[in-house]
């Protein structure tokens, strides 16, 4: 279990979010010609146990208040089932855990993460991937800005389609997403529909270039307003060498809202990632992105978010690795004070951390993650900083 400063992934910052990996993190579209069959079919079970120490669980301003520390113990179990059906695959995944706060027991919450998907192949290179997922987790106090509990629930249904091959090929995706919160935070409940269509071009010596258009309609159900995001963009992916990969997405964003006070936004958005393993045993990755966050517990409208991340992972041995990472994020909130009065119009978040991983056997592994987080706002309200240390263990059966 790891607390997050933000509350949700960028909805429009990653137009290819419908091509997400199984863990729900945004990723680039998988090419049908490179989409492997599931590496490990059958039923698999993984048990986990995390011990997280957080010295500021209520995210209070440590410059003026005394932060409350706690130890959160999270046992979990994850089951996966994969099966081939002719040329096709199905995958079922479910993970359940319980975040137990040893001191602040009222904060303890059940955590659920499930997904079902299928890879349906037809023709020489065409692939359709329907997917459904459900995530339930405790909201982080960083965006609640008060010692009040909120259990968030995210539900998603969708499908993607591609026929990638040398030359021109089509891509398309659709996603229906629902976000639900506790009654006190129902202003942040949303129902969103995302549509994506485009044409790609693949040439082995060049890489893959895709021109696309995406539309996101996101309605705040309780507030009765809708934000609409239009994206026109180009996505480029190429392996510069066997050791270096570049993934770049540049788009023009147009956002408008039913609320005149929320207003509109026009500007560039991007997501660029560069990774290299040119130095033996060391992998370096740098990522920057800018886009629109609809799903926020702060703004009644939307947020313009810009973020940067650098990380390095060094393989000490075949069984041990160590890494460092740093993240910077800035959000500017567009909101209607008549719908939800709020004093913060922008914030800045930083996170610095280090990870040490050790594989003790083919079945058992340990991970140690230490990080320092810091938030500053434009009004000096709801500022905080703190440190988290997580020791995690997993056992595969």
Count every beta strand, where a strand is a DSSP E run of 2 or more residues. 18
Q: Beta-sheet strand percentage?
A: over 45%
Give the helix level as a range of percent: under 10%
Instruction: Quote the average pLDDT.
Output: 88
User: How many strands, which pairing sense, and closed or not: the largest β-sheet?
Assistant: 18 strands, antiparallel, barrel
- Label the overall shape: globular
Low-confidence stretches: 1-15, 17-35
> Which class of secondary structure composition applies to the elements?
mainly beta
Q: Cα-atom Rg, whole angstroms? A: 21 Å
Q: For the terminal residues, how far apart are their CA atoms?
A: 21 Å
Instruction: Spell the H/E element sequence.
Output: EEEEEHEEEEEEEEEEEEE
Number of helices: 1
Give me the secondary-structure topology:
Elements: E1 42-54, E2 70-85, E3 88-101, E4 109-122, E5 126-138, H1 141-144, E6 151-162, E7 167-180, E8 190-203, E9 207-220, E10 225-241, E11 244-257, E12 265-276, E13 282-293, E14 302-315, E15 320-334, E16 346-359, E17 364-377, E18 384-396
Antiparallel strand pairs: 1-2, 1-18, 2-3, 3-4, 4-5, 5-6, 6-7, 7-8, 8-9, 9-10, 10-11, 11-12, 12-13, 13-14, 14-15, 15-16, 16-17, 17-18
